[in-house]
Specification:
By secondary structure, the chain is α+β, with helices and mostly antiparallel strands. The protein folds into two domains: 45 residues, no CATH class; 41 residues. Helices cover 40% and strands 11% of the residues. It contains two helices and three strands. Strands 2-1-3 form a three-stranded antiparallel beta sheet, with no helix packed on it. Helix 1 runs antiparallel to helix 2. It is elongated and about 55 Å long. Keywords: Plasmid. It comes from Methylobacterium currus.
Length: 95
């Protein structure tokens, strides 16, 4: 598997039971097998939040929320952050 990145081609040679996950808009190609056999499973995942920028904000908020809970437990700040994150997800999610 070779994926095109902004830095050029990025080759992947994975061990058994490994996977590469990348956006469906990414250019890629399959390199020839030099030894052994290629076995592949292909699938797609869909986010209900269309915007990559909004998904990044939700990811950052969730990272902060988990960190806050690990350090301080369930607090008012944790609950408020959880509410804001859930409201943004409801606002940005599409059917």
């Amino acid at each position: 598997m070779v994926i095109e990145t902004s830095a050029g081609e990025q080759p992947f040679k994975l061990s058994a039971v490994s996977m590469v996950i990348y956006p469906s808009t990414t250019l890629h190609r399959v390199a020839p097998v030099e030894s052994g056999m290629r076995v592949a499973a292909v699938g797609w995942a869909r986010s209900y939040v269309r915007s990559a920028e909004n998904r990044e904000i939700l990811f950052d908020l969730e990272t902060l929320r988990r960190d806050l809970f690990t350090r301080e437990g369930k607090t008012g700040a944790f609950d408020f952050l959880s509410k804001c994150s859930a409201n943004l997800l409801r606002l940005w999610a599409e059917d």
